[in-house]
Structure formats: structure tokens, C-alpha cells
Amino acid sequence: MIKTFESLGIDERILDAIRGMDWDEPSPVQVATIPLILEGKDIIGQAQTGTGKTAAFGIPLLQKIEPKKKPSALILCPTRELAVQVSEEMKRLGEYVSLRILSVYGGAGIEPQINAMKQGVDIIVGTPGRVIDHLHRGTLDLNEIKYMVLDEADRMLDMGFIDDIKYVLSKLPKSRQTLLFSATMPTEIQSLSEKYMKEPEIVSVSEDILVLPNTEQLYIPIGRRNKIWALCRILEANKPKTIVFAQTKFIVDMIEKRLKSYGYPVAAIHGDLSQSKRERVLKDFRSGKTNILIATDVAARGLDIEGVTMVVNYDIPDSPETYVHRIGRTGRAGKEGRAITFVSADEMHLLEAVEAFTESKIPEFEVPTSGKVKANVHEVLDFDEMADIFGMVKIEISTGGSAGTNTAEILELLTRKAKVSEMMIGKIEVGTKTTVAEIHKSVAMRTMRTLNQLNFKGKRLGARPYKE
Ligand code: AMP
């Protein structure tokens, strides 16, 4: 049965704001939690970004809080970006509710936050470090807190905030409602909830709705050496607003440099950047000054950016959960999106794991050939991709039985003339017109070049990768 926002007990002031946001219906986590939170229950919500969890706790809080100029609600978030995102979404939902919402986080001046606090604030959204800083300075009064939210609790634990969180919880009035949201439920979260929550109801949104239905998922079989080429082709074909995910900071930087040198409006984000640089990169991407963002998982987790039309997994992630997180950056809020994953020959098992986890079959996609590619990015021979599990690749040489050639002659040609060590040579199969020889990938390119310059039985030789 499809639920409506009206049926969840939400009052008119907030329904009006929701209507202005063009949301058709409440998401499953909203259906499950809003009525319980309105009733006053403590909640543990197993839901990640992209499921609508912010509004799931934001709507009931906005509805229940009476303006009184002293903070009634404290929302702890792992990062500055998320704190800003949560407060912005709450401000939009609270457009017709006269509550003051303030985000406090490190890396920004503390004075303006103190001044804003003095004016009177109802809801504080902050990162643990800065909240504690305000507590120590005596600029934040938690005596009237009635609602406490731990957002992305697992991530806060991953980031080492456990003691900070416990400290803040210990400073709160006992009679309060506590809400905890987390994508995963490690044991630390269970013990945290046992100690600090009152008979919490556990709400989990089943995994299959995490893969957003508006996202078209595709994969391209491709080796490392041709990924940049494929990426350029994809970017040219659609001119999308794209987030490209890569496995390491090093690869992120490499992609950024290459794309920049071809003239693409691109920026990179990873954990090594200073907070202010990260802010600038995100601002440029949000505003459209850059429309390609290269990111590591850590840097991009939880980001909510309007209008991302494509996600490219430059490297397929090791875990299917990460895959779901990544592709959740596109196709949001009812808009169509596309997720393209590069998969090299030795990574097929990772793709199968994603398919099993998401219970979907991801179709293969070819590198688009339409559209002009900037500069000289060409497809190159990728022997890593062609090699078998022993690292051997097949090279076709333009001489065979019809010219009287035999195996021994080819072996001699390879070892003596092309200077390939015998250890690097595999099976040699002499055909009528051509010969196919297995050569180790590490020397394949050099061997091919040398063979192409040699004469054999009075003729110039040709050599190229063998296609079956
Ligand atoms: P969240 O999981 O809170 O990060 O929300 C993900 C995105 O979905 C945000 O851009 C929200 O504004 C949007 N959103 C939240 N609830 C709904 C809804 N019921 N319908 C459409 N979009 C929504």
C-alpha cells in the first residue's frame, strides 16, 4: 500500500514545505520511522544516505519542537559536509516553522557560531569535536535538550569519535528522546544503544531498495591501460555531471591530471585535501563550474549533490556495499541516472558479487564511439588485459607452413633475433599462413616491435596481437 505524507501524522506547516519540494511520496524509512518518532519512541534506524533518513528524523523534530531559544535538539554528524547538508534540508523542511537551526563544525571560525548561539537557537547540527569545543567554552547549553540524533553513527565510530559521543551523551538530560541512524550495526553501536537509549525500536530498511530504481547500471569490460580512453569517450558522448570513483588517492590524482591536460573541467577530492580545499572543490562542482568530480570513497561518502547524472566506477570497489553507496550518488530523488563500472578481466568476480548482492544482472556496455575525443586519447594495446592466468599473450606472426616455416625456426627467430628469453615463450602453433606464439606480457610489446622490423625468408615480417 502506498502511503502519503498526510497519512503519517505530519502537520500542515511541514506538509506545505514538503509540497514545495516536489516529493511524491514518503520513502520507506520515512514511513517506518516518522509515526514512531512523533509518538516519542527511541529509534535505531538502519538506513544509509540516499534513503531519505534526514527527513525521517528531521520532519518529526521540526514538528515537535517548541521555539524557546535554548537548544531543544542536538544532531551529531560525522563530517562538516554532512552537518551542512542536514541543516540545509531541515531549514527547507522547516520553512514554515519558526525554529532556528544552526550548524557548528570545525575548520570554520568559532566566533560567528558563538554569536549565532547567543541569538538563540533551537536545533544544533554539529560535528562531535566542535560541539565539545563549545561545551568547554560554555557557549553551548545542553540543559534543555529533548531530542538527540546520532546520524551515520557507524561512520562516526570509524572516525574515532566514540569517546566524544559518549561524553556528549553524558552531558544530556536523562529525559530525552534518542534517535540513532547507521548504515551498519557493529557491536559498539548495540552497546551504545543499550547504555544510552530507552527501549529503542529497530527499524531497518530492506537492502533491495537501496539500489535506486532510477539508476541504469552498466559495466564495461576494460583493462587498466585503456580506462582513461574509455572515460574520455563516455564523458564526450553525454556531457554528464559525473562523479568518478577510484580506489586510491594516487589514482584520483592521476585521473585529474590526465583529464585536466585534455581540457576537461574536472576537480578531485580525497582525504588528504585541507578542509577549505574540499569545500571549494565541492562548491565548484555543485555550482557547475566543474562538472566532473574524481573522488575516493571516503571523501564522497554521504555527499548529496543535486543533478549528478552519472557515476563512473573507474575501479570496481571490493565490497558490494561500497558499490551501492557510490551509485546512490546519482538517480536521486526521482531523477534518472546512470552508473557505469569498469571491470578488468581479473575483476569479474567482484562484478558477480555486486550482482548477487543487488540481485540484479548488470548488462555489458560498449565504449561509445560517437563524439569527438579531446586531444590524443587513443585506445592502446593492453597486454595485461589480453594475458591468460599465466601472463601469456598470443602474438600472430606473418609466416607459416605455406612458406615452409616450422616451430624450431620460430623459436630460433624469437630467441636469437628478437632476443626473447626462452622462459618467456609458451606454445608455438604454426598455421598455414601465420604462426601464433605465446609470449609473456612483460616482453610482448618489445617482441612485437622487433618482429615488425625483421626480414624472414626474404620477406618483411608482421606481428600483432592474435584475435580468436
Ligand atoms: P538522505 O538519505 O536524507 O541523504 O536523502 C537523500 C535525498 O533524497 C535528499 O536529496 C533528499 O532531499 C531526498 N528525499 C528525501 N525524502 C524524499 C522523498 N520522500 N521523496 C523524494 N526525495 C526525497
Write a structural description.
With 468 residues, the chain is α/β, with parallel strands linked by helices. It folds into 3 domains: 5-205, Rossmann fold; 210-358, Rossmann fold (3-Layer(aba) Sandwich), CATH 3.40.50.300; 383-465, RRM (RNA recognition motif) domain (Alpha-Beta Plaits). The protein is 38% helix and 18% strand. The chain is built from 18 helices and 19 strands. The protein has helices at 12-20, 28-39, 53-64, 80-93, 110-119, 128-137, 153-158, 162-170, 187-196, 227-238, 249-261, 275-287, 297-300, 320-327, 348-358, 383-386, 407-417, 441-451; strands spanning 43-46, 73-76, 101-104, 123-126, 147-150, 177-182, 201-204, 215-221, 242-245, 266-269, 292-295, 310-313, 337-343, 392-397, 425-430, 435-440, 455-456, 459-460, 463-465. The strands form 4 sheets. It has a 7-stranded parallel β-sheet with strand order 3-4-2-5-6-1-7, sandwiched between helices. It has a 6-stranded parallel β-sheet with strand order 8-13-12-9-11-10, with helices on both faces. Residues 207-211 have low confidence and may be disordered. Adenosine monophosphate is lined by residues 23, 26-27, 30, 49-55, 89, 304, 332-334.
Topology (SSEs and partners):
Blueprint: H1 12-20, H2 28-39, E1 43-46, H3 53-64, E2 73-76, H4 80-93, E3 101-104, H5 110-119, E4 123-126, H6 128-137, E5 147-150, H7 153-158, H8 162-170, E6 177-182, H9 187-196, E7 201-204, E8 215-221, H10 227-238, E9 242-245, H11 249-261, E10 266-269, H12 275-287, E11 292-295, H13 297-300, E12 310-313, H14 320-327, E13 337-343, H15 348-358, H16 383-386, E14 392-397, H17 407-417, E15 425-430, E16 435-440, H18 441-451, E17 455-456, E18 459-460, E19 463-465
Parallel strand pairs: 1-6, 1-7, 2-4, 2-5, 3-4, 5-6, 8-13, 9-11, 9-12, 10-11, 12-13
Antiparallel strand pairs: 14-16, 14-19, 15-16, 17-18
Helix pairs in contact: 2-3, 3-4, 6-8, 14-15
Bound molecules: adenosine monophosphate.
